[in-house]
Amino acid sequence: MTSAHPPFDTRIFQKECKSLAKAGYDVVLVAPHDRDEIVDGVRIRAVPKPRGRVERLTRTAGLVYKAALEENADMYHVQNELELLFWAQLLRLRGSKAVYDMHENLLKSIPTKPWIKPLFRPVVMFACMILERILMHKIPVIYAEHSYIKDYLWVNKHITVLNMPLTSQLLQINETKYSTPTLGYIGGVTAERGSMITLEALNILKEKGYHVNWECIGHSDESHQKELFEIIDGYELKGVQLRGYLLPAEGWRIIARCHIGLAYF
C-alpha cells in the first residue's frame, strides 16, 4: 500500500513485490497509477494520482485503504507515508495483520523539508512524534537502515531490510562511457538531496573552463523541476539532462555510461 510512491518504485516493486511474487505469494500493489495491470507476476491495483500534497494526505490515502480492504489480504504492507499509518491502525483494529515499512527517519527529515517553514518545523516535529507513537502502536516495523533503531527504541517488533542494489542485474550491464566527463545521479530529485548545489557546482566548473555534463534521473515535483530549468538557463548549462523517473533497468544503463556517481547525504 502506497499513496505517494510510483508503482514501479525500486524498493517497493522491484525488490519487495517481485521477490514475494517469485516466492509464490499472491501480491497486490495498491498505488497511484494510470490503470490496473499485472507486471512480472504482481497485480497493480490503481487509484487516481493525487493532484497535490493535501489530496495525497486525505483523499488518496483513503482510496488506497478502501482498495486494499476490498482485497481481504492476509497481510498488509504499508509503505513510508505517515497518512497511511492511520489506516494501518484501522486494519489492525479490524483484526488484520499490518506492517509498516519505514524508508526514512521522519522526525530527522522534517528540518530538510523546504515546504515546511522553519518557524513551524519544531511544532510539526512534536506533532509527528506524538502521531507516530499513537499510530505505530503494536504495528511491526521494517527499517530501511540500522540507524533508525536508536530513535525508535519504543518499537517492540522490528527488522531491518537494507535498500541494497540488485547486483545480479547490475553485473549484466556493459555500456560505453560518454566522451565528455559526466556526473550521474539516480534517486529522488529535491533541493535537500543536492539538485541545486549540483547545478551550482557545474556552473563553477564551467566558469573555470571545465565542461562537465550531468545525467539526473528521478522524480521531482513540477515546481522544483521548473526551478531547476530556470537555474540551468540562467547558468547557460548545456549538458544537463533531467530525465525524470525511469524504470531501473533503463536508468542503470544511463548511469553506467557516466564517469562519476553522486550520492547525497
Write up this protein.
Helix 2 packs parallel to helix 3 and helix 7 (195-207) runs parallel beside helix 8. The chain starts with 9 loop residues before the first helix and ends with a strand. 39% of the residues lie in helices and 17% in strands. It has two domains: 10-160, 3-Layer(aba) Sandwich (Rossmann fold); 167-261, Glycogen Phosphorylase B (Rossmann fold, 3-Layer(aba) Sandwich), CATH 3.40.50. It has 265 residues and is of the alpha/beta class. The longest helix is centred in the first third of the chain and has 19 residues, at 53-71. Strand 8 (182-186), helix 7 and strand 9 form a beta-alpha-beta unit.
Give a brief outline of the structure.
39% of the residues lie in helices and 17% in strands. It has 265 residues and is an alpha/beta fold.
Name some characteristics of this structure:
4-stranded parallel β-sheet; globular; Rossmann fold; 9 helices; about 260 residues; Glycosyltransferase subfamily 4-like N-terminal domain-containing protein; single chain; alpha/beta; Glyco_trans_4-like_N; 11 strands; about 40% helix
Would you list the SSEs in sequence order as H and E?
Answer: HEEEHEHEHHEEHEHEHEHE
Q: Supply the number of helical segments.
A: 9
Domain count: 2
Instruction: Give the helix level as a range of percent.
Output: 25-40%
Strand residues, percent: 15-25%
CATH superfamily of the largest domain: Glycogen Phosphorylase B
Could you tell me how far the N terminus lies from the C terminus, measured between alpha carbons in angstroms? 27 Å
Strands, count: 11
Shape: globular
Oligomer: single chain
Average per-residue pLDDT, rounded, comes to 93
Task: Indicate the CATH architecture of the largest domain.
Answer: 3-Layer(aba) Sandwich
The CATH topology annotation of the largest domain reads as Rossmann fold
Main sheet: strands, sense, barrel: 4 strands, parallel
